[in-house]
């Protein structure tokens, strides 16, 4: 029986932690955040699908060895940037295991993914296309044949619809099996006959830089970081880092680090006891010294004043 | 632990003493000297800003253990540092332990950034990817406009914080945030800059001017004849004259006189009560007492005896007639 889940969120942190802890990141656009997430684990194939109302940048770190294809689900949405590669609506990204790829969308996005283990992929590849499909060693972009890709997307949409509106039907073993087989076939056809990816060496280099970048961020979960530390840790000068970050994160490293500090401050404000601390104390702990500016920036990013976050009880977050 | 402070000065001597990390021999040619110094010591970077209300001359010796970058914030007319007009948006990257003449031609606001060479090297390597050598002679750099603007803005913000909220600046994370911003802006300025040091000729002139100072310093109390000094330096009087005009804006003779008068003023202040002006003047090589007194009065607006009396009045506690006062 497949494992079916459908959720809605208003807090990005909650959303990201719900995605099996594969995803970390933050919203980069101001406004009301709403997200919807559906996932269906069939016996072999896993399907996931999300919709987010604001632009954001997240790091995806697959924790299980699976080969995943990720794509935008709507024709009319702007291209996603996955690991620094622009993935147009008629293209998909193949995510490699062991990478930590940034997925950046400048505005509202709708995305979907399907994944298989390397063994299943190899076996199905042999059976369906007569080719052995090996897991990719790095994340890259493919342009699947239009017919196979269209079919994958239609099936994906139908699966989401069933998961949300009629999970009892999807839970029926015959339906689930039929759906899984159809999805797996479409996925294999997309992968097997995709046009080969063009990978430039600078791209590989930049991806390596971003991986080290991510390592530094992870190693310092609650500490403020500045650009000189990132340069030293990634071993590239500021100029290169700037190019890498624009490519993968859609913004320069300075802005990324400021946003990160804003989010750290927000987390601290939400966790803190309102009687025991002040906004000033928390803001300065994260290196913000112009408190007026901090308040304005905070408010426009999170939609409430820092003092309101501080007063809010942790329970309120659940709602 | 980061720290900061700000103080106002009306006495050039106190001002000299208040300048950290740089030894300054200041000559102020007017009477009502006023200056305000603001400094901030972050984790490894030190910042200093000085607001001076009068034109002045100074011979500055920078602390060799640190690397210095200085820049004027008001440049009307542009100050002359080491013989070079420092225009708006220019910064001066100093050599280690540099000695130079600074001439401010009007009221001036100028800023200083100092940090250990090791840190500059590490940050330069990390941010720029290549070593960032400290020049062997001071260079005036012209960075991209937005780089200088950013450096100036951050420096001003930090100094404003030092003046208004020193406690905030003492917070290690705030100090770090500011320091990291300053370093990044600084490295960008130093690497993106085109520079000039006024050319080989100016470098040579600057060396001569340092030798001139050395010759003066050799025996400060004995007045030397100009010819003697020129011989010591190895230039003609006429040459020295032209260099002084460029670096100091006055003749060597007048510079020498001002230096000696300043020294004399200091001696009068530190004098013990039994001394007379005549004694001191003699000791400082002013043989013609009347001419000395006139020159002294012209520069400082009071007679030497007044200085001596005033210092005596304040310097030595008299018996207290009323304890409550």
Describe the overall structure.
The complex is a heterodimer of chains A (319) and B (325). In chain A, 46% of the residues lie in helices and 20% in strands. Chain A is built from 12 helices and 12 strands. Chain A has helices at residues 12-18, 118-129, 146-165, 167-170, 173-192, 201-219, 227-234, 238-249, 253-271, 279-285, 291-302, 306-311, and strands at 3-9, 23-27, 35-41, 46-52, 56-60, 67-72, 80-82, 85-87, 92-95, 101-105, 109-116, 140-142. The two termini of chain A are 30 Å apart. Chain B is an alpha+beta fold and 325 residues long. Helix content of chain B is 47%, strand content 21%. In chain B, the strands form 2 sheets. Chain B has an 8-stranded antiparallel sheet, with helices on both faces. In chain B, a hairpin with a 2-residue loop joins strand 7 and strand 8 (84-85). Chain B is globular, with a radius of gyration of 22 Å. Residues 315-325 of chain B have low confidence and may be disordered. The chains are: A alpha+beta (319), B alpha+beta (325).
Strand order across the largest sheet of chain B: 1-3-4-11-6-9-12-13
* Anisotropy-based shape of chain A: globular
Oligomeric state of the chains in view? heterodimer
**N-to-C terminal Cα separation of chain B, in Å?**
39 Å
What pair of chains forms the biggest interface?
Answer: A-B, 19 and 23 residues
Shape of chain B: globular
Estimated helix fraction of chain B:
40-55%
- Low-pLDDT stretches of chain A are none
- In total, the number of strands of chain A is 12
SS field, number of helical segments of chain B: 12
Q: Taking Cα atoms only, what radius of gyration of chain A do you get, to the nearest Å?
A: 21 Å
Number of strands of chain B: 13
- Termini separation of chain A: 30 Å
Task: Summarize model confidence as the mean pLDDT of chain A.
Answer: 89
Structural class of chain A: alpha+beta
Helix-strand pattern of chain A: EHEEEEEEEEEEHEHHHHHHHHHH
What is the residue-mean pLDDT of chain B, rounded to a whole number? 87
Rg of chain B: 22 Å
- Estimated share of beta-strand residues of chain B: 15-25%
């Amino acid at each position: 029986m497949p494992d079916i889940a459908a959720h809605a969120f208003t807090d990005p942190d909650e959303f990201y932690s719900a995605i099996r802890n594969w995803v970390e990141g933050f919203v980069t656009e101001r406004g009301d955040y709403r997200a919807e997430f559906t996932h269906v684990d069939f016996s072999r194939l896993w399907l996931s699908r999300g919709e987010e109302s604001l632009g954001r940048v997240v790091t995806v770190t697959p924790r299980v060895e699976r080969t995943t294809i990720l794509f935008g689900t709507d024709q009319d949405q702007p291209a996603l940037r996955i690991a620094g590669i622009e993935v147009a609506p008629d293209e998909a990204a193949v995510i490699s295991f062991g990478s930590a790829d940034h997925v950046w969308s400048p505005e509202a996005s709708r995305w979907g993914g399907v994944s298989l283990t390397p063994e299943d992929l190899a076996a199905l590849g042999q059976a369906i296309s007569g080719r052995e499909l090996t897991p990719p060693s790095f994340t890259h972009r493919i342009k699947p044949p239009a017919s196979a890709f269209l079919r994958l997307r239609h099936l994906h949409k139908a699966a989401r619809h069933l998961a949300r509106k009629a999970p009892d039907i999807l839970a029926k073993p015959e339906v689930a099996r039929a759906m899984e087989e159809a999805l797996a076939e479409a996925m294999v056809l997309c992968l097997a006959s995709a046009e080969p990816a063009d990978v430039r060496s600078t791209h590989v280099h930049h991806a390596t830089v971003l991986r080290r970048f991510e390592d530094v961020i992870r190693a310092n979960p609650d500490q403020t970081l500045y650009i000189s530390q990132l340069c030293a840790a990634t071993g590239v000068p500021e100029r290169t880092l700037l190019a890498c970050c624009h490519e993968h994160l859609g913004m320069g490293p300075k802005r990324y680090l400021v946003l990160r500090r804003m989010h750290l401050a927000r987390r601290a404000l939400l966790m803190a006891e309102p009687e025991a601390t002040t906004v000033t104390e928390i803001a300065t702990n994260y290196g913000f010294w112009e408190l007026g500016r901090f308040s304005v920036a905070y408010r426009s990013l999170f939609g409430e004043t820092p003092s309101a976050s501080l007063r809010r009880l942790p329970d309120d977050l659940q709602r | 632990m980061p720290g900061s402070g700000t103080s106002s000065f009306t006495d050039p001597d106190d001002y000299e003493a208040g300048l950290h990390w740089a030894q300054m021999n200041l000559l102020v040619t007017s009477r009502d000297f006023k200056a305000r110094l603001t400094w901030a010591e972050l984790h490894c970077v030190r910042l200093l800003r000085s607001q001076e209300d009068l034109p002045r001359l100074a011979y500055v010796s920078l602390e060799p253990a640190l690397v210095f970058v200085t820049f004027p914030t008001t440049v009307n007319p542009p100050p002359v540092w080491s013989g070079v007009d420092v225009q708006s948006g220019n910064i001066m990257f100093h050599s280690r332990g540099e000695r130079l003449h600074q001439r401010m031609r009007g009221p001036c606001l100028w800023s200083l950034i100092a940090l250990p060479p090791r840190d500059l090297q590490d940050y330069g390597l990390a941010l720029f990817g290549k070593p960032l050598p400290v020049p062997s002679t001071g260079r005036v750099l012209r960075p991209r406009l937005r780089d200088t603007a950013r450096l100036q803005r951050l420096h001003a913000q930090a100094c404003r914080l030092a003046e208004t909220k020193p406690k905030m600046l003492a917070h290690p994370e705030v100090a770090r945030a500011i320091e990291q911003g300053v370093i990044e802006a600084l490295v960008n300025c130093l690497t993106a800059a085109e520079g000039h040091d006024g050319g080989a000729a100016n470098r040579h002139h600057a060396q001569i001017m340092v030798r001139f100072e050395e010759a003066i310093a050799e025996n400060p109390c004995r007045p030397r004849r100009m010819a003697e000094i020129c011989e010591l330096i190895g230039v003609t009087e006429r040459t020295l004259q032209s260099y002084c005009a460029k670096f100091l804006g006055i003749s060597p003779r007048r510079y020498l006189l001002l230096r000696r008068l300043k020294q004399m003023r200091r001696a009068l202040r530190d004098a013990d009560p039994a001394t007379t002006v005549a004694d001191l003047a003699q000791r400082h090589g002013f043989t013609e007492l009347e001419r000395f007194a006139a020159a002294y009065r012209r520069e400082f607006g009071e007679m030497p005896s007044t200085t001596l009396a005033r210092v005596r009045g304040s310097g030595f506690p008299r018996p207290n007639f009323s304890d409550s006062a």
